Structures are given as C-alpha cells and as structure tokens.
Model the fold of this input.
Amino acid sequence: MQLFIHRQKTKDYSDKRFPDAMIELVESLALHKDKVWSLDDSNGLLATGSTDRCIKIVNLKSSRQVIDELDDTVHKKTIRSVAWRPASCLLAAGSFDSTISIWGKDDSSNDYTSTMADFEMELLAIIEGHENEVKSVAWSYDGTYLASCSRDKSVWIWETDEMGEEYECISVLQEHSQDVKHVVWHPSLHLLASSSYDDTIRIWKEFDDDWEAAAILNGHEGTVWCSDFEKSESSIRLCSGSDDRTVRIWKFAGDSEDDEQEWTCEATLPQVHTRAVYSVAWGPNGLIASTGSDGTLAVYQEVNGVWNVVAKTKQCHGTHEVNVVKWTTVDGVTMLITGGDDGHVNIWKYTNL
Amino acid sequence: MSALLSEEDLNDFISPGLACVRPVETKKTGKDEPTEFEVGKEPSELEKVSISLQDCLACAGCITSSEEILLSRQSHTVFVDAWKNLGDETRLAVSISPQSRISLANYYGMMLDELDLCLANMFKQFFRCKYLVGTQVGRGITISRSNQAIMAARQEPQAVRKPLLSAVCPGFVLYAEKTKPELVPYLLNVKSPQQITGSLLKLSVNEKLYHLAIMPCFDKKLEASRPDGEQEVDCVITPRELVTMFQELGIDLRQYKTQDASLLRSMSPDGWDLTLHWSSNEGSSSGGFAFQYIREMHQLNPQAELLIVEGKNSDVREYRLVDAASDQTLASATELYGFRNIQNMVRKLTQKSAKPRNARLLKNRQTNAAVQKKPEVADLSATDFIEVMACPGGCINGGGLLEGDSTKRKTLVDQLNTRYAQELVPVDPIRMGRHIDTTSVAHNMPYRYQFHPITSRSNDVVSLGNTW
Done:
C-alpha cells in the first residue's frame, strides 16, 4: 500500500517505473537431469545443452514436446553451448570435452516442420582443435562462419561449405589473456564479439585474408560472461553482462586510422542484479533481457536514449542460478526462454502493459 | 628483465600451462634415511624446484616454455656473462641467420653488405670474436639431405606414403611432440641449419668454441637445448635481444661502420668459403626447403611443367611438378605457415574428423545438393613434403625480429621479403650441400633429430579456478 501511494505521487513519464510490462511463466519444462547451460531457437525449434551431456530438441510451435534427443555418447563431458545455423536445420554443439559436434537432419530440405513426427538429427562432423573446454559456439548471420572459444584462451573461426560438412580453420585468435566465455556474431555483418575472464570484450573483423582485433572493450570490473549485438541496421551496439553485476551498452563510434575501430561505453543499465550476470539478450523488439546468478530475469527498454527497467521477475528457476536467456517469437507472441541449474527450461510470455 | 622481451610482443611465446608436470622432489639427505616419520617432525624441507629447458622439452604441460625459463638459460645476459668468463682457450664464434641480418639492416637503415661488415667489425673489436659466419652452409646440407630423404620416401608404395613435414621450425616440432604426437611419424628428421652450422663450426677448427647463434625466433633457443644437439649451439639470441644488449653495453653499432671487406674473410674459419656461407638460395624466405626439393625433381624431370598453386590464404603455396603429356603429378611440395594452417593440416593428415561421419546421411544430403566442382587449390594429402613454419609469414616474421616503422605486420613482412630477395646472393644449395657433405667432416655426421612424442597426456588434469 505504501508502495502504491509512493508510485502515485511520483508518477512521471520521464522516470518510468516497472511494472510497465509483464513476464508470465507459460511452462516449465523439466528437460535435463543437470544444469542447463545453453539454448537456442530457430524456426520454432528449441535446442538445449546440459551438464548431463544431452542435447534435446523441443518443438515450440505446438505442444512443446521433445521431438529429438541427440546421441549422448558423442560428447564425453558437459554440453556448454548449442547454436542453430541460420536458415538451415544444422546444429553446432560445443563441449567441455574440447570438441564441437555438428548435427543435421536426415534430408537436406529446409522444410523442418512438415516431418516433425519423425524428426531426427544425426551426427555430421566432429571438429577438433581446442586444447580444452569449449565454452561457446556461434554462427555468422549468413552461416558461412562458425566461431568457437575455449578455456585455452583462444577464439577460432571456421569456414564451412553450403552443406555444413567440411570445416576449415581460417583463424586462431589468441589475444585474450584468460578463458574466453562467449562468442557472438553481429546479425548482419561479419563482426564477432568475444567475452572473457580477462574482463574484456574483443571485437574481431576480417583483414586481408585473416582476422584481426578491431577493438578491445575495457570497463567491466569482472569476468564478462556474455554479450549480444543490437538487431539494428542503423547502428552497431553491443550489450554485455559481467561478474561485476552490471549490464553495459557499447557503441561503435567509427573506424580509426590504424584500421581499428573506436568503441565507447554508452551506458550502464540500471542496477538490478545482486550477483553475476550470466546472460544478456538484445531482442529484435529493441528490448534487452538479462539474467544470472541471483535468479532474476530483467527486461530493459530504451526511451529517448535512457534505459529503464520495464519488467523484473525474481527466482525464475526457484533458488537456482540461471545461465541463459533468449528472446523468441512463437505465433506472434513474444517470449523469453531461460535455462537454469535446476535442469529446467522455462518459457515466459512477455507483454507490454 | 628486459623491457623489450615481454609477453605482449612475442607471437611465438606461450606461457607455461597449468599442467606443468615438473614434480616437487624431496632432497635426499643421506643414505640411511628412515622410512617412517613422525607427523610434524618430517625431515628436510622440500628442495626449491628449478625448471630447466630440458624439463620443459619433456613436459606436455605447455607448448614452449615460460619467458623466465628461456631467459635463465638462453639470453643476452647469459651470453654476456659467459663471454666474460670464456677464459684463454675458448674462442667466441657467432653465426647469424639471413632473416636476422635483413631485419637488423632494416632496423639500422643500412644495406645488407654494410650491416654484415658493421656486425663483423663490432663483434671482432668489442667481443674479440674470432669467427663470424652466415648459416647457408648448414642450410645447404639441410636442403640436400632433406631432398635425398624425401626422394627415398617416394620409393615407398603409394598406399603407405605420407607427406614429410620439415622439422626446421622448432615451434612446430615442439607443438607436434607435445600436443599432436600422432604427427611425429610425419616429421622429417634432418636437422636445421642452426644446428648443422653449429656442429660444423665446432668440428672444423682445433679450438674450443663458444657458439652464439643469432636467430629470428625465440623457439630456436629450445631447439638448441634439445638433448639430441646440445653441444652444437651454446646460446641463441634474437635480433631484438642483440639490440637490447647493445643498449645495455653502450654499443653504437653505426660507429663500427667499415669499408674493410677483408674482415669477413678473416673471420671465416679455414676451409669456409665466405661467398657460400654468407649467401642464400631461391625459394621462400624461411629457407626455401619446399622449392628446392621441387627444383631438384625438376632437374631430374626437365620435360615436366612446374605449377605454383596458391592455397586458400597467402600462407599456403604448393609447388607442383606435372608431366605435360599425361597430366600426372610427378612431385609436389608445399609451404604452410601459421597456426591456423597447421590446424587444418593436422585435421587433413590425421583424418580423425572424418571418422564419425554418417555415410548414409551424407549420401542422402549430397543427392539433394548441387554438385560443385572444387577449384584447383593446394592439396595437402597428395604432397610429398611440407615446409611447415609456426609463424604466419614464416621465419621472416619471427617473433625475435625487430619492428619497423610501419605499424602493420604485413607491410613490414613484405618489405623484408623484398630485401631478402634483392640483397642476399643466391647460390645452388643442393650442389653446395652435396659438395660440403662429401668433402668435409659433415660426411660422418648423421645430423638427425630423435623425436620424442609425449603421449602420456592426461585429459583430466584438475584445473584451477573456475572452468565454466
């Protein structure tokens, strides 16, 4: 009651307070026997990876049933990262056993919905090269490149053919001084961001016939766990989440003389998290979602250059840590999907009020 | 510690891994040690562990070695200390690689022959150095013996034949021994120009020598520390360290400029032709090993056509000798530089990645895919010999070379490559190598490496810190 009165008193459109939007749990799927580390969805298909070494495929469009469980003898350790290749039915999975597996569907047609009943993915290739735990894998927007990163401090870029069967290493980037936690590609450019235990984010771009560091983003005061690019054609921005409990926004400011890029830290989002931020997602709707060790899921909106928290839900996997969040749209409904240490994948409906 | 030699600017430097397996040993105090101890009254403290270069060579924990360990055995300060204590009987002999000479000439803004004389004058006057040689004599023997070994391997039946990998780059050899033991059978065991030059220097004079080698890369220090060649080179330093040493000792190299062309002759050991050991040869600026093999095969098959097939990037190039009439490949050799290309080579040669392929699935998918004919690119599986170098750009981009004015690495490499081709005098290394091999002490020397694949690598090393 006290809170309500307070809100009435200070009602001011320039200082928006939540709830301006609502996050409602639609379904909690008990998919894995151990931690869910990673999930990715494409065309209504959700792939999940877990410490239990299983990769599961869930059809988000109808009954949210598991339609395939991939061969769990392929990887000897935790599946840390899964990623669908854009516009295809090809999945990459990175494991703590230092390898990356590539999975495809039995027929190469891109119609992945018609044969949902007998949906089955099989192993196409194993990519070796990293010395130890693979932490993240990511496809470029056009599916040409697969990036991977590892505790061995390196980021690798692999080039593949149209069928996604042959993989050639085109660059090994060894400039991070510590464990590289996460890699992500820009939605429409060949621009890669890597986040590391060395507290930096590095931006990589193609130069001559190799890849080079375009920028180092310094500012976080702890491990950077994750970053995500803005889904925009007009500007290049990146959000990042860190052990220092903050979410920051970085903006590409232009090319510098020595073929490098200028990036500035544009904003630090309003403080929500009380512990490490493990995952950030910049949705096509312009909203940023973040989650992490404190189990809180938060959504931020930018209004006239100012970021506000528009929705927040605590303990979204009970008392467990939450490792990943992604935006998706199923049948026109905006959803958030989270994966937690409880082995669950939770599906949330997001509504603007 | 030298400010110049820091982790940031060594591109061939890798710090010790968490898995350094050098054990902590308890120092034995005597013969009659009791075998049981009362808790809290254990005798003797643990001996402080010191890690030698040889320990590093025998360990799978990290690829090369830490800066500290390198510097403790092989650095310009170690050299200066050793030089001060050489005594009356031991003479200083210095060998210098052509890439190091080009890099120094570029750094000091001199022509190459100007620099060579300058260095000779400085080493003679300041360090009382008796012998100064280029490394081409060693390279000639490396090339001629490599060619013989590759041609002998070609006599093997096609089914068991595999590409031989040059062992001249110690960065790559250590990588293979430590992390890719399955590659070791592919290594060609002919020693490098550095080691052969060192051996010949010591064998061709009746004096005790301290041999300092000036090399483009830090990994050459580890090569000199291998148990199979330890006496051949006493210390390796890079041009960067040389310049640091000059600064520390107050040497201004330019003050040693001289026109006295007889210097080089007077500093050559008896029987060493200075027009040979100061020369170079055609082919890559990393030594031209791939090209010189194909050149010899071409001499044996003069009717054949020599094709140069570029790879997917500028660090891969195949020399292919093709019989024009039958379109058959008679011989092939490939230059392959840089870690990314080494990775693809490993994948191609060891074929592991092909194993889990699902044949039925691949077939189904292929029938649906448009069949594309692949363009002609360098083909590693069909090549006889691969000149592998760990650094992108090869030895002319070694981590121990000096930086130029240009900020871009590639611009500097192009510049150095141009000077390498223009200013070094090319000789025929095969003829030279064979001649020296049959007429000198080299005749009795095997000059073969003994490789040691380290297979006991544990995949379940307990890792420190957070690993997720």
User: Anything to note?
Assistant: Chain A has one domain: 4-352. Confidence is low (pLDDT under 50) at residues 1-16 of chain A. The two ends of chain A are 21 Å apart (CA to CA). Residues 88 and 127 of chain A are 19 Å apart (CA to CA).
